[in-house]
Write a structure and sequence with these properties.
DNA binding (chains A, B), mainly alpha, GntR_C (chains A, B), WH_DNA-bd_sf (chains A, B), Arc Repressor Mutant, subunit A, DNA-binding transcription factor activity (chains A, B), homodimer, 2 domains, transcription regulation (chains A, B)
DNA sequence: TGCCTAACCAATCATATATTGGTTAAATCC
DNA sequence: GGATTTAACCAATATATGATTGGTTAGGCA
């Protein structure tokens, strides 16, 4: 009975002496047995207790590590893109991006707005669809960056990556041509102005209206393809 | 001059004959040289043109592939967690999750609601903080799943993964204790009821209020730590 | 000058070997 | 007899090695 707790005590003493930083790996179980002078079974009991206590985590083939187990990532872009479709992506954009625009209106600096205007200028001067799409992407990302919230930017990037993968997979318009419809230009202008004037409500509304138009165009083109 | 275009023509003919599906790999450059009977330089010119045209993409060590280059992922959970903090994460939750709740109210099935009620039951019966947190997580994820939108679920998972990494990194409450404050229980109940009644406005508002309380608690505990 | 050829480079893949936590069962010890 | 040690084995992972790939450069050649 004392033995069972003894291994844990020895292990704790060993770790306290080293004072290892988080995520650092400690020796393999077989080595620790020799170091601490305990049997592997007792050592594993102690390790199990500390793992249950979230003081360390173990994995076959990897080893034993200080701290809490890292989370598994279901954020694989390609995997998401496989499971979804343009409709879901546009719906997600309609829910997320207006909220980002509202937050951008609150936090945007003069530099952020200048960046947005530069993107708009480039999109107006675009000679090919590819250039236009790049500028459009850059503008939307500039809005996300204007929130000055790393998590929101990361979420936007994820959503954007999924969008590009899915859309490109479906309709492959090889013909590069300048955009004929200029409805986006006016909407972008209104969006940036709302952000500049710190009008959260207008920023959100404008973004929502803009994405609704994009959604409508996407729907129309898919119908035309049928 | 005819030679330069000739390699491209031959390559196009070769690809048209095979009619390879997207993302499929085509032979290595050195093999293609023999197959098409052109020099590697000419072949690479043709490949460069088609790559510029987004008809294929190449990468050292991998090969040459049909279609457009897959997007790079900035969705590394650990990387995001390194750059952010609990405040940004809570802010992002306050912007995203109410929108998800609204959408859930529109699309939830009876099975979805039953799943939510099960999560609530488990959270009420939780004996430790860990159990409570797991049930709470499961409930919020059930709401996301009720949107029946793969992209929204994936974004929620990403946000949730970042949240757990960041929060766990900061405050490590080793002491497992049952939750003393029951304010979340009533809020969860109201949230699920709003979703069940398809009241988008109430669902969004309830989720926002709930997260505001969570944010308040997090702020209070961090102040207490100082 | 323009093209071909060959060689080389760094990134990546493919394969084999070693290591690690997890498990089981016989041996051993009070 | 029950608990513990010990050894062997397993699947997952890491590590090391060699082959392959796109990218690049330099010399030969027409």
């Amino acid at each position: 009975m004392d033995q069972g707790q003894g291994a844990l005590t020895q292990l704790r003493a060993y770790l306290a002496q080293r004072d290892l930083p988080a995520n650092s790996r400690l020796p393999a179980e077989r080595e620790l047995c020799d170091i601490l002078g305990v049997s592997r079974g007792e050592l594993r009991k102690a390790l199990a207790i500390m793992e249950e206590n979230r003081e360390l985590w173990r994995h076959v083939g990897k080893g034993t590590f200080i701290g809490s187990r890292p989370v598994e990532e279901f954020s694989n872009i390609a995997a998401i893109a496989e499971l979804t479709n343009p409709r879901e992506v546009m719906q997600a954009r309609l829910l997320i991006e207006p909220q980002i625009a509202r937050e951008a209106a609150l936090n945007a600096t003069a530099g952020d707005v200048a960046e947005m205007r530069l993107c708009m200028k480039m999109s107006r001067e675009a000679k090919t669809w590819r250039q236009y799409e790049n500028s459009d992407n850059a503008l939307h990302r500039a809005v996300a960056e204007a929130t000055h919230n790393t998590v929101l930017v990361a979420l936007f990037d994820t959503l954007n990556a999924v969008r590009r993968t899915v859309v490109w997979g479906r309709l492959r318009s090889k013909v590069d041509r300048p955009p004929s419809d200029h409805h986006s230009f006016a909407e972008h202008e209104a969006l940036v102005r709302a952000i500049e004037e710190r009008d959260m409500e207008a920023a959100g509304q404008t973004m929502r209206r803009h994405l609704s138009h994009v959604q409508g165009n996407l729907l129309a083109s898919s119908q035309a393809a049928e």
